[in-house]
Amino acid sequence: MPEIVPKKLRDPRIRTEFVDANGLRFEVDKCGAGDRLALCLHGFPEHSFSWRYQLPVLAELGYEAWAPNLRGYGNSSKPEGVLAYALEYLLEDVAQLIDASGHQETVLLAHDWGAVIAWYFAIRQIRPLSHLVICNVPHPQAMQQGFSFEQLKRSWYVFFFQIPGLAEKMLSREDGKAMRDIMRSSAVDKDRFPDEVGEVYWRNAMQPGALTAMVNYYRALVRGGGAKRQRDQGFPTIETPTLMVWGEDDVALTKETTYGTENYVRDFTIRYLPRVSHWVQQEQPEAVNAMISAFLQGRNVPEFSWQSVLTPVEEEVEQVQEVKEEVMQL
Prior knowledge:
There is one protein chain. By secondary structure, the chain is an alpha/beta fold. The protein has one domain (7-329): Alpha/Beta hydrolase fold, catalytic domain (Rossmann fold, 3-Layer(aba) Sandwich), CATH 3.40.50.1820. 40% of the residues lie in helices and 17% in strands. The protein is built from 14 helices and 8 strands.
């Protein structure tokens, strides 16, 4: 099997194993040996590697932390066909991974497409959850209510992905350059996404069948009718205590799509991170980890803010020093 994450980037505390669930084989990064499960779901075009900063922290909190590569990603199974990525199958994947863990208590953490799955998993109460942590994807009903012309412009890629074969062709141009650069180009703190990190996601996406699998999530949701089937079932209130962590500089989703989420979640906490991108748990892991830790321990979840500091330019500093010396000579 191809080595997607090189050894030099691997945290020695994280082990990789394979788990059979829902008729598929899942590659799972694991950390810790607690008696509770923390299941972390990645998004597009990511990999279990995107949770590398969170798994050890969750393990320290007493969880056995799992970050699976979802179907179509990493070295997990890649079933063929759009309908193989229907939301109902994705929900059952999560359910059977929880069952395979053998744990009686589960906290679900999720980002991007993983968060789409996690929202519906909690809404439909597929399995009991002690806590839900969502990163940068709105509740489906709040998304619908907050959908604006600005959000329509940002969602262009969802419609582009519906065209058979075109997305794969465009994303693989120039040896898949877009897949190397997608995170760094849309991040605020680009230092968090050096070339070696971009290479991980590039290797992940350029495996045979991987790009098609990734975009089939979107095709199954729109063309395949997954979103409509869920709307037809309605959106009962989520009873699971939920934390939403939201990087405000998200190029794909507007902040307005988060408004009103408290109407659909009984116990809801939201924390905005200004000047942080869509890739929030990778770009500001220290802040996100502090928020997750506090939430899971029942403490007040800290806020995140930026402080503007006016610093004199070098010439001004020299002028101030000259004036100070002249004053001292008087």
